[in-house]
Amino acid sequence: MSGQKFQYDESGGTFFYFLLSFLALLLVPSTFYLWPRCPKPDPNQIVKECHCDGCKKKKVILQKNDPWKETKALFRKFLIMCGWALLAFLAYKVSQFDYEMTNFDPYEILGVSPSSSAGAIKKAYRQLSLILHPDKETGNEKAFMRLTKAYQALTDKEAMSNWEKYGNPDGPGAMGFGIALPSWIVEKENSMWVLGAYALVFMLALPTVVGMWWYRSIRYTGDQVLLATTKMYYAFFHNTPTMTLKRIIMVLGASFEFEKKYNTDIIERLSDNEEVPALIRQLPNLGEKNKEYPLCLMYSIKARALIHAHLSRMILNPDTLEKDRQYIVKKCPYLIQEMISCVNQLIVLAYARQVQHLPTITTIENCMRLCPMIVQAFWEFKNPLLQLPHITEDHLKYFKAKKVKSLQEYAQLKREDRRSILRGLSDSQFDDVMKVLGNMPFIDFKVRSEVIDDENSTVYTAGAIVTVTVTLTRTDMAHLFGDDTIKEKTLIEESKTEADKEEVADDQNQTVTKRPAWLRQRKVQKKSHSKKGSNKKGAPPKTTTTTIAAGDNGLSSQHTNSSPKSKKDKESNKDNIKEKINGLSNVDSDASESEAHKSDSSDDDNSSHESTKKQQESEVGEDDDTEWNKFQQRLSKRDRLLDGRSNYSHLVHSPYFPDVKQEYWWIYICDRKSLTLLTAPIHVTSLIDTEEFQLRFTAPLWPNIYTFTVCLRSDSYLGFDQLHDIKLDVKEAAAIPTDHPQWEMSDEETEEEVDAADEHSEFTTDEDISDNE
Predict the structure, then answer these.
(1) Please, which residues bridge with residue 668 across strands?
(2) How many Cβ atoms sit within 10 Å of the Cβ of residue 763?
(3) Residue at which a domain ends, from 442, 464, 495
C-alpha cells in the first residue's frame, strides 16, 4: 500500500464525471414527472359540459384558486431545459477530457511525421516551445508539459520504451486514488467558505427541513386530517351513540382545520364582527348558544353558519364570507370521510368491549347523507330534481303534475314529455338539463352471497364466514331516456347480437370434431338438456326464482336456485376438481340444473344407463370449467388489488362546490332491525365501468332465518342510494369431534362460552321481532 497515492482532482476531469452522473440522476425522473403536460381537451367532454350560471362561476373560481398555474408551468419547463443544456455541456467536457487522456501521440503533438529525423523533431520542439512556454504571452503550462513529454518520448530511449510499452513516457507509475472534487476545496484561503457552506447545509438547512416534516407528520393522520380533529370526533361520537344530522353539522363545523391556531390558511377579518352575527340572525336552528367545547367557540359558530348558508344557497359577500365558505366547503368531504372512519372504529371497539357505548348505524348513515348535501348545496328534505341546472322551486309543480318524483322517473319519459314539463326553459337551457341528466350515474347493483372454500357454498352454518360479492356496473343515465329512437337502436343491436351468436354456434357445431374433449362435454350436456325437456310429463326442470328489491329507484334482481345434487355425484366432482386445480372446492350452484330431475327417471334399460353416464360426464366437465373460471377470476382480482385503486371515476355536476369532484360511493352490510353494522364501509373511488368488491362477516351463532341489507350510498348525488336485502337460512354447525386430545373441553368452559356468545349476539331474527310484538 506504500505505492498508493490519494490526491484531489487537479484538472477537474473526474469532478465532471461526478456532476454528470448526479445531474442525470436528477433530470431523468424530474423530466418524466414534473414536465408540464397540457392534454388536449376531450371533444366528448366539451360536448357534455354544462353552460349554466353556476358552472360558469365555478370555472372562474377554479382559475382563481391557481392563478399562477401557467407561470409555474413555464418556469418548470425553463428549469428542466436548462438542466439538460448543462448536462449536454458536461458530457462534451468529459468527452474532450477522455480524448486528451487516451490519445497521447508525440508525433501529432510535435506536428512531425513518424519518418522525421532527430533534427526535424528538435526544430519542431524549439518552435512550439517559444510559443507555449509559460513565460511567454501566448504560453500554456498544460500544453507545454504535454509538448515536453512528447519530445522526451521521441528523443530519450527510456522514455520511448515506456511510451511503447505503457502509452506514457513516465512509465506505469504507482496506483493512485483520485477524489472527484477539485483541489481548491482544500486550499487554505478557501477553508472558511467551505466550512461555512457545510455548516449551512448540514447544520441549518437539513435539520430545519427534517424538523418541519416531522412536526407536520405528527400533527396529521394518514388522510391529512389533524389529529386534534380526529380525537374530537372520537369524543363526540362516543358520548352520543345516535347523532342527528343537525348535530353532525355542528361537530363538522368545530373541526380544528377551521381555527387560526391550527391552520394558518384561515383568515380572520375585522368585518367578521358585523357580518357573522348578521348571518346568524338569518339562519334558524343554528344552535349558536350551545355551551359545549369547542362548539361554543367563535370559529366553530362561523364555520357552522357558513355550512348552513351553503346548504340554503344563500348569497354572501364575495370579498369576505364567500371566500371563507369556499375554503370550508372544499374541506368538508374528506372530513366527513374521517368521521365515518371514526364511527366505524368505535363500533369495532364496542364489539371488543373496549368502549362503553356502541354507535348506531343511524349515526354513520347521517354522516353519509351529509356529504352529497354539501356537494349539491341543498338540504336533504329538498326535491332531488333541484340537482339539475336551471331548475328552481317554481318548476317543481310541473313535475308534480306529471307525478315525477325522482331523476330516474324523469329520465324514463319520452323527449316530448320531458320537454313539455320544462317548456318554460329555452332550448339551450333544456339542452343543459339533458346533458347533466344524461351524465348522471345509473348503477346496476348485483349481490351474491356464499361461503367460500366450503364443500357447499350455498349452505350457511352458524359461525361461518359469509362472503358477499357486490358487483357495480356504472352507465350513464342517458340509457334510461325513453326515446323511440334509442329503443329502436337497442332492438337492432340486440337482434344483431343474437344473429352473431347463432352464427358462432353454427360454426362451433361444424367444427366440433376438432375441439378438445373437455369442450365437447359441454356440448353433450346441452343435448342432454334438450332431451330432458321433452320428457313424458312435458314439464321443464323445476327452478325457484326469488325477486329481491334493490333500492328506492325500483331496481330488482332475480336469483335462480335449483335442487341440490346427490352425495355420490358431489364426491366424484370433488375428486375431479382436486386433480384439476389443486383442491379448489367451490361448486357453482348454476351447474347443478342438469341433475335436478335425475330422480324422476324410472326406466333401467340400457339406453337410460348410457344417457345417465353421458350426463354425469358432461356435468363433471362443466363443473371443472366453472371452477377453473372462478379460479382465474380470483387471480385477476388479486392482481387488481395489488395494483391499487385510483381516485379517478367520473366528474360530478356540482356548480356550488368550489372544487372538482369525482363520483365516490360507500358499500356496507347492516342489520336494519337491530341497527348494527356488520362490515366496515368500503369507500369506492374508482368506479368507471365495472367494479367488484367482497365483504365478509360472521354468520350468527344461532340457527334461524336472518335478513341483512347491503347498502350502496353516493357521496355526490342525492336520490341514488340503493338497498339490497339478502336472506340467510343459518343452519346448525356440524358437531365438533371430541376424540381428539387437543379439542377436549370441560363442561364449565363450554357453558361459559355459550353464555358469553348469547350476551354478545347483536343479530335480530324474525322470530325475535314477532315475540316482542
Answers:
(1) 711
(2) 20
(3) 442
What's the mean pLDDT when you consider all of the chain? Answer: 76
Claim to verify: residue 208 and residue 278 sit in the same structural domain: no
Is 496 within a domain?
no
User: In angstroms, rounded to a whole number, what is the distance separating the alpha carbons of residues 658 and 676?
Assistant: 35
Helix axes 298-311, 361-376, angle to 10 degrees: 70
* CA distance linking residue 231 with residue 254, whole number of Å: 12
Please write the tens of the pLDDT for every residue from 181-200.
Answer: 666 777 778 888 888 888 89
Describe the chain by its helix, strand, coil percentages, rounded to 5: 55, 10, 35
User: What would the pLDDT profile of 423-460 be if each residue is shown by its tens digit?
Assistant: 999 999 999 999 999 999 999 999 999 998 777 888 99
Q: What confidence tens digit (pLDDT) does each residue in 699-745 have?
A: 999 999 999 999 999 999 999 999 999 999 999 887 766 655 555 55
d(CA 766, CA 770): 6
- Which residues are 559's β-sheet partners? 546
Cell numbers given for 43: 371533444
Contacts of 725 (CB under 8 A, 6+ apart): 548, 549, 707, 708, 709, 710
Both 124 and 96 in one domain: the answer is yes
Three-class DSSP category at 471? strand
Torsion of CA 169, 171, 177, 183, to 10 degrees: -30
Among all chains, which residue has been given the C-alpha cell 414534473? 34
The CATH number given to whatever domain includes residue 13 is 1.10.287.110
How many CB atoms are closer than 10 A to CB 727?
12
One-letter amino acid for residue 625 of the chain: D
pLDDT in tens, 260-269: 999 989 999 9
For residues 267 and 287, give the distance between their C-alpha atoms in angstroms, rounded to a whole number.
23
Segments forming the whole domain that contains residue 722: 443-478+514-596+610-736
762, part of any domain = no
Regarding whether 61 and 15 lie in a shared domain, the answer is: yes
Q: Same domain for 79 and 198?
A: no
Place of cell 361461503: 451
Phi-psi region of 417 (alpha: psi -120 to 50; beta: other; left: phi over 0): alpha
What whole-number distance in Å separates Cα of residue 770 and Cα of residue 773?
Answer: 5
- Determine the 3-state secondary structure of 185 from DSSP: helix
In a domain, 771, yes or no: no
Q: How many domains does the chain have?
A: 4
Radius of gyration of the chain (CA): 39
> Could you please report the per-residue DSSP string of 472-535?
EEEEEGGGG---HHHHHHHHHHHHHHHHHHHHHHHHHHHTGGGS-HHHHHHHHHHHHHHHHHT-
Residue 146 has pLDDT above 50, yes or no: yes
498 within domain boundaries: no
Distance CA 474, CA 689 (A): 5
pLDDT-derived band at 159, boundaries 50, 70, 90: confident
Query: Per mean pLDDT, which range of 39-43, 200-204, 444-448 is the poorest?
Result: 39-43
What would the mean pLDDT of 606-610 be, rounded to a whole number? Answer: 51
Instruction: Please state, as a whole number, how many other Cβ atoms lie within 10 Å of the Cβ of residue 528.
Output: 19
Q: Is the pLDDT of residue 329 over 70?
A: yes
Nearest Cα to Cα of residue 667 among 465, 358, 460, 445: 445
Q: What do you get for the CA distance between the two ends of the chain, in Å?
A: 97
- CA–CA distance, 316 with 377 (Å, rounded to integer): 14
Share of the chain above pLDDT 70, in %: 67
Reply yes or no on whether the pLDDT at 358 is more than 90.
no
What's the CA gap between 32 and 721, in Å, rounded?
A: 41
Q: In the structure, what pLDDT confidence band is assigned to residue 237 with cuts at 50, 70 and 90?
A: very high
* C-alpha cell belonging to residue 612: 345417465
